[in-house]
Amino acid sequence: MTSLFIPREPHLARLARFGLIGAVSTLIYAGLSWTLTTYGHAEAVKASLIAYTVSGIFSYLAQRRFTFRSSTGHSRAAPRFIVVTVLGVVIATLAPLLLTDRLHQSPLLAIAITCGLVPLANYLALDRLVFRPAPEAAGIDAAGLWRLATIAMFGLGAIMSAMRRTDVDVAWLLTLGEKMLDGQRAYVDFFEANPPMSILLYLPAVVLGRATPIPAEAWVNILTLTAIAASLVLCGRILAKAVPDRARLWALAATAAFVLTVLPTGVFTQREHIAVVAMLPFLVLTLARSEGETPSWLVAALAGLGCGVAMAIKPHFALAAGPPALIAALRRRSLKPIFATEIWAASAVVFAYAFLLLTAFKPFLAFMPAIREAYLPARRPLVQLLICPPIPIFLLLVLLTIDAGRRHLRSAWIPVGLMAAAAGGLASCLIQGKGWPYQAYPMLAFAALALAAAVVLGWRDAAASRLPPLVRISLIGSCAALSMGWSNVKGDYHQLNAPVAALVPHPRLLSISADIALGHPLTRELHGHWVGSVCSQWMTAGVLAQARAGHLSLARRTRLRQFVGLDRRILVNDILRGRPDIILVSVGGFDWGAWARADPALAAALAPYRPVRTVDGVAIWARS
């Protein structure tokens, strides 16, 4: 390690060049971000990600060539440059969060650290760790660097989870968990389009939120991060023999930490995200079995239990779990991988959940016709799904994986198996047909992990890729940025918080809308009380979507009208019994206020309410 401190050139000249490139990179980021938001009408998050990626690529190239005049290969310098950059972001984020917000120190201290120590540490890291010869030649512990990268990625993901708003679906499911703890009966006193596992998944966070001063929203993040750490540890145990090179093993851990904590962005803690975390050890285990590895009974059982939880969340995830198991059976030319311990453990969880449905959640089975008739058929056309951003991103990840692993495809059992799981994720996304960002996460996550495995397992093969290193790095960075941007596409009504709170500080709330995001997480952020039995008028919205698509028989239209009537009756009951202080009504596009007043009983229930303000297509009705 002493070679790290051998001077190569007077620092003053390099420091000046380093500062110049930093200033130019900042100008590129600011100018491109401003241009995209002002003239390209891009969302701020997307514009920032694109601008940061472009400025980061410029910074890397300029610092390598101009500042440090290094001949270090891109395959080694670029990943380390990314790690150093991420660490800088983590420190710059933690400084104000801990010193100013938590310890109540002067903001100047955090500013001094961010503007002084972070650039200096960044310079030293680039000089001594990034733009140098190979770790083996310089005496650098490559495994240690990747271990540090894993911690950095996990830390960055934890910070991001603490800073973002609670996801709309997660906020609603937490609310349902609270209703259950208050004694209300699922699918009797309140109604949800998803099976009970969606509610049960977040129930531990609700229980902990009531038992401790920490809110349920924070417990969801804590429990998810704990599950991610456990998943990574279990995967490491499984791969310890199959990947004896510690540097490669920690490189896989670092990329997995990025995919599980940073890449999800807006879908972090969503059901699909938790399912990927739970299923990953099972996938790795089945692929390790294809190489003849024999894990311990406990490791296999834990991996199988995680997969079972994922399939209980949504049966579609069997499409991701099945292909790797089949690959293992084909490679071993034996049926033993199909009947291994993890398969039995996963099956046990699924059967236990099915028994729970038949005994403790019989009302869900009675409510299934409404879900089957009104909710499930409301889907996007296949053509629209295929041109959604996640599909091109997925295809590009497939091509990059093939390019990275083409010279060792026969031995690339991890990339091939993970890409097979990603194909199952694609099938799941298309079957569900909603086109929502979180439904694409398993497909993108498994594909990204497959690409990472192909790159890491072949990183010493200089001819493994036909693409120039910079082109490959740019394409991979673009896939990551686009995936993160897509995951943030969702309804956001935070602008309603202030006007609603000004009317009633902790309101009893209800909405008349097709959009769940209208009332969630707004209700929880205002410490209000959701008096509704449903999150939105999803039954009516599904019927209207089917009517717009056309080709409905008279008998089917008659059946569907029953669910519109049910939606209205539920709404009338919620208004009369819950007596909301505020009702949020979508009036942009489809006028849900007119829809409500068209029904005599609903109009009578709404008689005491008057619109007091309209914000971005949402009318705020208050009780007079």
UniProtKB/TrEMBL annotation:
The chain crosses the membrane at residues 12-32, 44-61, 81-99, 105-125, 145-163, 218-240, 247-267, 338-361, 382-400, 412-431, 438-459. It is found in: Membrane. GO terms for cellular component: plasma membrane. Residues 17-131 form the GtrA/DPMS transmembrane domain. Keywords: Membrane, Transmembrane, Transmembrane helix. GO terms for biological process: polysaccharide biosynthetic process. Belongs to the GtrA family. This is GtrA family protein. The lineage of its organism: Bacteria, Pseudomonadati, Pseudomonadota, Alphaproteobacteria, Caulobacterales.
